[in-house]
Amino acid sequence: MTNSDPVPLVDAGLPPDRFLDREESWLRFNGRVLRLAQSPELPLLERVRFLSIFSNNLDEFFMVRVAGLMRRLATGLPVRTSSGRSPHAVLGRLAGLAHQLSTEHAEYFRDEIAPLLAKEDIAIVRWADLEDGERARMQELFRTRVYPVLTPLVVDPAHPFPYISGKSLNLAVQVRDPRNGTTRFARVKVPPLLPRFIAVAPGRFAPLEDVIAANLEQLFPGMDVLAHHTFRVTRNQDLEIDEDITENLLQTLERELLRRRFGPVVRLEVEDTIDPRVLDRLTAELGVEDEVVYRLPGPLDLAGLDAIANIDRADLKYPRFRPSEKVLPPEADLFAVMRDRDVLLHHPYDSFTASVERLIEEAAADPKVLAIKQTLYRTSGKSPIVDALISAADAGKQVVVVVEIKARFDEQANIDWAQKLERAGCHVMYGIVGLKTHCKLSLVVRQEADGTLLRYTHVGTGNYHPTTARLYEDFGLLTTDPEVGEDVNAVFNHLTGYSRDEDYHRLLAAPHSLRPGLLERIQREIDNHKAGLPARLRFKCNSLTDEGIIDALYRASQAGVEVDLLLRGICALRPGVPGLSEHIRVRSVLGRFLEHSRVYVFENGGDPEVWLGSADLMHRNLDRRVEVLIRVQGDAHRAQLTSLLDRGMDDGTRTWKLGPLGLWSRQRGGADLQEQLMQEHR
Question: Whole-angstrom Cα distance, residue 511 to residue 13?
């Protein structure tokens, strides 16, 4: 497998304005997250959590998508936008929408959520609202726990303007020397390792920056503190690595992670009460223009609200849900079940711990298991799967782990895991030059009682991450089908060595067979419809931006094929355009769990062909990653998957609907699909 050039548009004769802008589409997705926070039918602390998620999402959007556009424009590199608009026009539209959403987000917390929290005896209070006793406790806390870790940095001829780290919260302070009247600017960084909101009394919390600001005279003794203002910067944190000229990817990536901390500023957030002169000083020193300045109601950095959302108040949260173990009961022999039949898992409704984790842990402990092969894209800080792989290596089993150390924002964690696995004796690989390894595969080789070797395989849509497996909706297939075992073993051989074998029995793999395989099957639906045979396309994935796939779907619609798309995030396709896409419907399910699975259903003349796997319909997935889809064979499993897609598209299900202009409308009322699935699994 090697990297491949992007596939050109399949039909340049279609209307030139047929694509929506992908960055704007992502912002509108985050707007839907904000709408969840504004939903009065949701428990209050879950609404707080969605406010935190919105902030985290927006941070990543600026650090990667906006930063990438700005970098390419600044360096003169070519920029191709999906909508066809100029890059400057796209940046302008993004800035306008991002400003609107950011302000709405901050104002909604201040005007709606904070008062609702106060009614539930959870108050987020500013310093001016504290009682005398509370202030005294906070001053003592400042002296003992906060003051020792603060470092005020003054700006004068001997001290240049300090480096401001990305996503850090800071105080811009103006101080005056009473002896000579000299005024200086200083910066105080809010320590990121201390709680974002300090408990001042049971159920009462103050922003950490307020506690620091109220005690600034201790940091500047003998000086007059004239003013202080909170600000926050976001920096470019995308990585650019030329793997073709890199001899040691691990060392190069570690150097780039250090360099990433010093990326250019792409956003400056300030409280809307900031003194214009202080703001002018900040923009000049940081070298930013006014359009990247976001003036917001305080407090800034509402990503820290996750700590409030985690307060132990079950009455203000979703009812607790315990994943089901009925698919693989604890008393069942897991290997015997897999030998008997394929097992389709639907997380988080089916327990990840009792299935996927259990497979690797039992394989590590089973003396009949000879080898384990595993891909890791993202995993948790304490990973039972990694621990099991280390135990397997300690037991003398052959353990091969393909760790994707370029997984965005998890690079350092994956480097640490890779080194830990290597020290334990595992064979650790980093995949293929120029490609990210995004497929979700586990392979266990076991010697059976009759002496034969049997492969036990897991192919999934989600990461081997025990924490997100309780929050992300994903599918996985457990099987001992010899063809799947042979296919997955061949994929691992691609990843760990040199191989040109690209013929698979039940897999489609990027970057070679996945794109042509999907296009061929879309065309088959068109041909079947023309021949009077049953024809229909039903896709569920996170994002749809690939122009070649979109054009194929447009052609299917023009031919009369019904196309149903269940998408969580970005969609560059315009549905419902007469003469182009009137047979295409796009829906989105947002709720308690993050919809993350990828399922592709082709009607195939009445004998539906169903695929699941790791790939979204984006350039990077089809051309620049190692991805795998597996064909699901069992009638019951195919029916379960197609039924899920049909329920998601049903007008009686609570969803969002995408219109031809790229705007989403909310279908209120109706059934909550995720709640229904929880009830069914209970």
Answer: 26
Q: Look at residues 88, 70, 76 and name the one whose alpha carbon lies nearest to residue 237.
A: 70
Q: Do domains 334-505 and 508-681 have the same CATH topology?
A: yes
Q: What are the phi and psi torsion angles at 190 (to 5°)?
A: -75, 120
pLDDT score of 245: 40
Which amino acid is located at 89 in the chain?
A: A
C-alpha 591: how far from chain center:
15
Contacts of range 77-85, beta carbons closer than 8 Å, 24 or more positions apart: 81/21, 81/22, 81/23, 82/19, 82/20, 82/21, 82/22, 82/545, 82/547, 82/572, 83/17, 83/19, 83/20, 83/21, 83/24, 83/572, 84/16, 84/17, 84/19, 85/21
How does pLDDT run across 386-407, given as a tens digit for each residue?
Answer: 999 999 999 999 999 998 876 5
236 known member of a binding site: no
What pLDDT does 5 receive?
41
Indicate whether 252 pLDDT > 80.
no
The residue from 438, 458, 494, 529 that is catalytic is: 438
Give the span between the Cα atoms of 119 and 418, in whole angstroms. Answer: 48
Range in 77-86, 224-233, 256-265 with the lowest mean pLDDT: 256-265
Residue 88, pLDDT score: 78
Residue 244's pLDDT is 41
Residue 168 has pLDDT above 50, yes or no: yes
CATH 3.30.870.10, applies to 508-681 = yes
Helix or strand (DSSP H, E) at 680: helix 673-681
427 noted as active-site residue: no
Q: CATH 3.40.30.10: does it fit domain 334-505?
A: no
Q: What is the pLDDT of residues 341-358, one digit of tens each?
A: 999 999 999 999 999 999
In DSSP terms, 229 is beta-bridged to: 172
For the chain, the residue count is 682
Is residue 472 marked as binding?
Answer: yes
Looking at 3.40.190.10, 1.10.10.10, 1.10.1040.10, 3.30.1840.10, the CATH number of the domain 149-288 comes to 3.30.1840.10
Domains of the chain, residue spans: 149-288, 334-505, 508-681
Kindly report which listed range (154-158, 201-205, 338-342, 561-565) carries the lowest average pLDDT score: 154-158
Q: Is 339 annotated as a binding residue?
A: no
Residues 6+ apart with CB under 8 A from 619: 6, 545, 546
Q: Is 408 annotated as a binding residue?
A: yes
User: pLDDT at position 239, please?
Assistant: 52
Between CA 491 and CA 501 the distance in angstroms is 9
